[in-house]
């Protein structure tokens, strides 16, 4: 009897060990522990909606003016929306949320994704940081004043390099308002380990199909904003840089129309929204830059114009959008002028959705390929 009991105990330990591994791995690519804030404070830890105990929300440490908001709650005449579930957190004056993640991989790039809604001031901002870090730029001040979705919520992503196996992530509202409760609503916080994409044999660009990028929350139909380089040195879209003043949007085939694969980018802020990648070329050699331009099937209608650049050579690609999905292929042939060539895309015009929401939108770019031309002929 002793031997079967030992085997049974060993089997139970193995199951528990495997479950621990499964839980641990889920932290690397998905919702953080209590990242949806559904586990909340006790009534004794609150004063009306304000959370008074810094450890009242499981897995999070709070400071400043933090409120625990229930779905359907009103602020005066305004409804405070909660995207999914029953609860979210509002960061008021000088308020912050901090969580400790125990099982990240040191030396790996990660993308943080979180859902937010603006509730008061037009100039709301959010400071995102990770520690420990020896990089003084390992923090970003993300502007929240522009809403890109018609749902009242947007998702932001932010990239960083893990310098330890244990890290602290902090979301901080630095504002000081007349109303100390004013600040962004935060819900759904997730982490994803980013792979370093390799250049395939038929493409000189990394991640030209945009399949590798930040975490997209299931059942959210507004995409993910990727901030410009001035806000985030570690772009959560591997291989690319957002070298503009405004964000771009990362969209998926579950909720949008994309030309190829499961992911694409939408240029949502006219000439202030651009992506770029620098690639090694050979001076005097001829190359083709081939790509798709379309719309995301999100009611973004009208005459669109995407400008593609390869060094100093440019191509304008017109696209007439009916807002119902579709795309066209385009090709820019150029002669490289130096050892490095910068490939860049931007939208010439601003666009707004045709659903009367006033939400910004724009053309979709996808399936970008750069190939050398062995037997050049006039295209």
Attribute tags:
disordered N terminus; mainly beta; 7% helix; 6-stranded antiparallel beta sheet; 379 residues
Note down, in words, how this protein is organized.
The chain is built from 1 helix and 27 strands. With 379 residues, it is mainly beta. The strands form 7 sheets. Strands 1, 5, 8, 10, 13 and 15 form a 6-stranded antiparallel β-sheet that branches. The chain has a 6-stranded antiparallel β-sheet with strand order 16-17-18-27-20-23, with no helix packed on it. Strands 4-9-14-11-12 form a 5-stranded antiparallel β-sheet, with no helix packed on it. Strand 25 and strand 26 form a beta hairpin.
Task: Describe the secondary structure blueprint for this structure.
Blueprint: H1 2-26, E1 29-31, E2 46-47, E3 50-51, E4 61-63, E5 66-70, E6 74-75, E7 78-79, E8 87-91, E9 95-101, E10 109-117, E11 125-131, E12 139-143, E13 154-161, E14 167-173, E15 185-193, E16 224-226, E17 248-252, E18 263-266, E19 274-280, E20 286-295, E21 301-310, E22 313-322, E23 326-335, E24 340-347, E25 351-352, E26 360-361, E27 364-372
Antiparallel strand pairs: 1-15, 2-3, 4-9, 5-8, 6-7, 8-15, 9-14, 10-13, 10-15, 11-12, 11-14, 16-17, 17-18, 18-27, 19-24, 20-23, 20-27, 21-22, 21-24, 25-26
